[in-house]
Write a structure and sequence with these properties.
The complex is a heterodimer.
Chain A lengths: L3 E4 L2 E4 L5 E7 L5 E7 L5 E9 L2 E4 L6 E3 L9 E3 L8 E8 L9 E2 L3 E5 L1
Parallel strand pairs in A: 2-11
Antiparallel strand pairs in A: 1-3, 3-8, 4-5, 4-9, 5-6, 7-8, 9-10, 9-11
Chain B lengths: L8 E5 L4 E6 L8 E7 L6 E6 L2 E4 L4 E4 L5 E6 L8 E8 L13 E6 L1
The chains are: A mainly beta, B mainly beta.
Amino acid sequence: NAGVTQTPKFQVLKTGQSMTLQCAQDMNHEYMSWYRQDPGMGLRLIHYSVGAGITDQGEVPNGYNVSRSTTEDFPLRLLSAAPSQTSVYFCASSYSWGQGTEAFFGQGTRLTVV
Amino acid sequence: LAKTTQPISMDSYEGQEVNITCSHNNIATNDYITWYQQFPSQGPRFIIQGYKTKVTNEVASLFIPADRKSSTLSLPRVSLSDTAVYYCLVAEGTGGFKTIFGAGTRLFVKA
């Protein structure tokens, strides 16, 4: 049981390049989300999904796309990377959102845009 | 979504009890209070969750007064390994898929 797996762990992009951050969970969780964390700050919600085929925007969705074709995977796509997108990205999943459940986070992807 | 306010940082010594208070004045009826812990270069980890009164698990206790406008995370006898950032979240459920994180409280435990 690997939990939430994010790849890659580190990435350097040039401005204008596109790429996809991968997130996979093996816990059969319905709910998944993407956050970014800038130095010394808390996490900000980018996009989230409540099930396969269903996604919605969070606080800071501009410049990012998501899709959820399967329960297990929730990739985050950067359309045209900008230096302002330099951050650590975390993916999270949970099987529900009610009392007693908890969210599981991946180890993060550290992205640098030059 | 309810906004939370926490101290930016706290210092403690090994073996002491640490209490971190979070204010959430506009908490909604359906909202739960959840605390997460984050170590450097790692994702947040769930610590404890509650709705009202007191909740205790093997790691911490959570105290919630009757008006639910604040909550206190209590860490008994902290060790150096408890040095981390602690986040208080208020959301319908535990969040993780639709949750707003604040800046958190940086706890430094000294020997």
